[in-house]
Amino acid sequence: MASEPVNVNEFRELARQVLPKMYYDFYTGGAEDQHTLKQNVDAFRRIMLRPRVLVDVSRTDMSTTVLGYKISAPIMIAPTARHQLAHPEGEVATARAAAACNTIMVLSHMSTCTVEDVASSCNAVRFFPLYVYKRRDISAQVVQRAEKNGYKAIVLTVDAPRLGRREADIKNRMVTPQLKNFEGILSIDVNSDEGSIVEAFVKETFDVSLCWEDIERLKSITNLPILIKGVLTHEVARKAVEVGVAGIVVSNQGGRQLDYTPTTISVLEEVVDAVGGKVPVLLDGGVRRGTDVFKALALGAQAILVGRPVIYGLAANGEHGVRRVIEMLKDEFELTMALCGCPGVMDITRSHVRTECDKLH
Ligand code: FNR
Asked: What is the ipTM of this complex?
C-alpha cells in the first residue's frame, strides 16, 4: 500500500502483504461457510444512527470504567492467539500498545509470550483468559501465575469445548509454535496427519466436560473476578448472573467457533435486558469503525473488544501498528459522539440508533 492506512480495514491489506498465507488465513478465517464471520461485520452496517443536533460538543469525553478500571475509551483488546506469528515481539508489543492507549488487554491463553513477560513489559491493565484443560492442575497453575503477576480478572472462554472447523487451517495444515505458558507442561507435539495442528492440540487437551458447576470451583481457587466470554442468549446470560460472574462478554469468537450463530450486535440487547444492569456486558465481533463502538454502547455494552484489527496492526508495524489501530478507532468514535450530540459516553442512549427490529414496529 503506497500511503499510510486511514482506517482499520486498510491495515488488513497491509497484514495480507506481510504475512505468510498460512498465518494470514489463520488470523482472518472463520468456521465452515464463514457466514457468522461475515455477518458480524455486516450487521453493524444495518444499524443507523439517530443524531441529536445543537448540543455543545466543544468537549467530549470517551473515558469509561470496566470493573472499576478507568480506560481512555470503551475499546479494549480481545484475546487472540499466537501474536509472534504476526510480529517477533508478539504479545509484549500488543501489551505496550494497550498501555500507551490506556486501555485493557485480555491476553490469550494461547499466547506466544509468557504471562510473566507480558506483565513485566508494561503497566497496562491486563485480564487473563482461561480455557480449562483435561489436566485441571494446569489450569489452576496458570490462574495462580496470573494472580501473582497482577492480572485483574479471569475471562473464561465458554464457547470452545471443541474447536470450530476452520477449513483454511485444515487445508494449510496449520502449524503452531510451542505455547510459551505451557513449556515443559503441555506439548503441542500432537499427531495431525490430516490437517490443523491447532485443532488436534485442542482435541487432545481441552476439557469438554466443563460445566456450570466449574464456575464455583474456579471461584474457590481465585479471588479475581470472573467474566465469561461466549454468551449469545438471554438464557445463558441469566444463568451466568445467577452463578455470580462479574461480567459477560457477548461473543461468537469472531465467527471462528460455531457457524450460523447470530451476530453479536444483534443479540446484545437481549443479553443486556436479561442481565438487568447487575454486571457489565461487553461485546466483541465485527467492530471495525468508531460508529460500531457507538452502536454497541447505544445497545447497552459497557465497552467493546477488538480482535483481528489488533493483529492487522501488529503484523503491519508491531507496537506502533496496534497503537494506530486503537487510535483510529478512538478518533472515529470521538467524532461519532460529537456528530451525534453526545459529549460523554453516558449521553449515548438507545434512541441514538435505529435497528432493523425498530423499523418493523
Ligand atoms: C481469537 N479469539 C480467541 N478467543 C479466546 O477466548 N481465546 C483465544 O485464544 C482466541 N484466539 C483467537 C485467535 C484469533 C486469530 C482470532 C481472530 C480470534 C476470539 C477473539 O477473542 C474475539 O472473540 C474475536 O476476535 C472478535 O472478533 P473480531 O474483532 O476479530 O471480529
From this structure: 0.99
